[in-house]
Recover the amino acids of this structure.
């Protein structure tokens, strides 16, 4: 064991420049990977929370409204309204349909804008009757929207998905770009490790030859190399963990979570999960290239 | 100690067998010369015993173990029972005589106290008393070969394999090395020595195995180098 530790230390010192290169590449790539993971967790969280809250609003015609399935100058008839409600409730994707009358909408309007001068400029007659539709699965909105748009007496269907969808598409692309970049960097890091270890094994090939000849076990021969790359990998992991924690603290805890309270934010638990994930990746990417690089020298 | 049963070895991509249908037995405590021209299969013979390769066909037993079916992870244990000496000594530069010999014990995990006891003993045995702290590369060829023999023998193996141990040495030095190998053999160690040195073989009069193009063409007790 003492021999292994001594060899590890001298290996690290001998290849100091390469070791530093490995640590830096490893640290940066794992930070990126961790950032990608955290972003992905946050996007999922935000998506679920926002989509859960989203209702489809189906606005009905009044005498003033135009467009949609309104007849000019006529409001939606009671029969039409009944028909709309029944059709919506019959749709298997719909979990709940709530009717909001003009009067209720006006009260809501007054409540929301109570300090604003616009309150005085509107009456209940300016509001529209509407249905608020909740979905069983918020992702499957498209069918309900197009069905509602086709019904007689529906003036307009408002649906926040159409606003949110492009945002999430872009966030998703961003997060994949981050993960892809980190994957490329991780590839570079593992190739660097393989190369460093191959060079270290080459410089010690005489010793390794004699060790094999006198019957040293493979583990004994391998241990200094494994420890060498593990130490470099672990330092890289620690750097990445510190960077992620700092990033989480400054970006989310200090800023985002206090200024944007409408959205849920990932917690410390998610940070720990991400750090464990990058630690696992980092350790695997230190060990596997080392085993591959030394295979040639250990073949019996 | 070593049994070849119809052993044949082909190297990948080669038409001719490096060793063909070898049948022989080497007993415990025997001293055997392995002679033949370069390329006759001597090195393959040795590498098969060391389990660097497996036979393509046939069965090979060394120290009671069937090497053809032996698990990869048991190979180090086998090698601990075999000492090996080469023509080019293969010492580690930058290490002293003592360190070179101790290395063989350290890497198989022998305790430090034991190492401190056995290494000087072995150095005395091979005639290197008082040279323990000399850097190995400062020694003469003969002395370097003694260090290599000490390293091969320090773990008291049952078998000592010497591949042309006198190939780089002058005749007088060679005689000293042969005396040493003879003494090791008398300590109940099976010695197998591959050599081109006819005068040594003729003087020692031990069992001679002659290989020619991979075939065993002579197995003679108290033999000489050339065909009798």
């Amino acid at each position: 064991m003492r021999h292994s530790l001594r060899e590890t230390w001298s290996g690290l010192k001998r290849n100091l420049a390469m070791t530093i290169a490995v640590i830096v590449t490893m640290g940066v790539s794992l930070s990126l990977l961790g950032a990608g993971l955290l972003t992905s967790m946050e996007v999922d969280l935000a998506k679920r929370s926002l989509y859960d809250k989203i209702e489809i609003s189906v606005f009905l015609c009044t005498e003033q409204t135009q467009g949609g399935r309104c007849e000019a100058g006529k409001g939606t008839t009671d029969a039409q309204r009944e028909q709309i409600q029944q059709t919506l409730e019959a749709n298997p994707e719909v979990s709940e349909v709530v009717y909001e009358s003009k009067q209720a909408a006006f009260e809501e309007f007054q409540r929301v804008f109570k300090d604003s001068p616009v309150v005085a400029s509107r009456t209940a007659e300016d509001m529209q009757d509407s249905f608020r539709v909740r979905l069983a699965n918020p992702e499957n909105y498209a069918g309900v929207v197009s069905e509602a748009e086709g019904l007689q007496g529906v003036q307009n269907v408002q649906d926040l998905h159409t606003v949110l969808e492009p945002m999430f598409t872009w966030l998703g692309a961003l997060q994949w770009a981050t993960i892809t970049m980190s994957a490329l960097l991780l590839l570079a890091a593992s190739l660097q490790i393989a190369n460093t270890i191959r060079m270290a094994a080459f410089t010690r090939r005489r010793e390794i030859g004699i060790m094999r000849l006198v019957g040293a076990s493979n583990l004994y021969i391998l241990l200094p190399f494994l420890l060498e790359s593990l130490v470099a990998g672990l330092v890289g992991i620690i750097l990445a963990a510190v960077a992620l924690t700092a990033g989480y603290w400054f970006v989310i805890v200090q800023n985002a979570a206090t200024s944007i309270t409408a959205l849920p934010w990932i917690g410390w638990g998610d940070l720990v999960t991400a750090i464990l994930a990058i630690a696992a990746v980092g350790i695997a990417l230190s060990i596997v290239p080392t085993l591959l690089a030394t295979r040639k020298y250990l073949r019996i | 100690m070593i049994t070849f049963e119809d052993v044949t070895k082909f190297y990948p991509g080669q038409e001719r067998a490096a060793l063909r249908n070898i049948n022989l037995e080497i007993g415990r405590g025997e001293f055997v010369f392995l002679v033949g021209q370069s390329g006759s299969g001597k090195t393959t013979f040795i590498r098969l015993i060391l389990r660097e390769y497996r036979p393509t066909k046939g069965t090979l037993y060394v120290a009671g173990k069937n090497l053809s079916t032996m698990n990869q992870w048991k190979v180090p244990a086998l090698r601990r029972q075999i000492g090996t000496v080469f023509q080019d000594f293969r010492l580690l530069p930058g290490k002293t005589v003592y360190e070179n010999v101790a290395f063989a014990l350290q890497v198989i995990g022998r305790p430090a106290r034991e190492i401190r006891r056995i290494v000087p003993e072995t150095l005395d045995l091979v005639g290197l008393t008082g040279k323990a702290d000399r850097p190995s590369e400062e020694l003469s060829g003969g002395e370097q070969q003694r260090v290599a023999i000490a390293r091969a023998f320090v773990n008291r193996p049952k078998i000592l394999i010497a591949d042309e141990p006198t190939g780089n040495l002058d005749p007088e030095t060679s005689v000293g090395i042969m005396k040493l190998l003879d003494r090791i053999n008398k300590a109940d160690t099976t010695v197998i020595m591959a050599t081109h040195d006819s005068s040594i073989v003729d003087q020692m009069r031990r069992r001679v195995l002659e290989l020619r193009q991979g075939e065993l063409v002579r197995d003679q007790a108290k033999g000489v180098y050339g065909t009798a």
About this structure: The longest strand of chain A covers residues 94-100. The first helix of chain A runs from residue 2 to 14. The beta strands of chain A are 56-60, 94-100, 130-135, 154-159. Chain A has a mean pLDDT of 86.
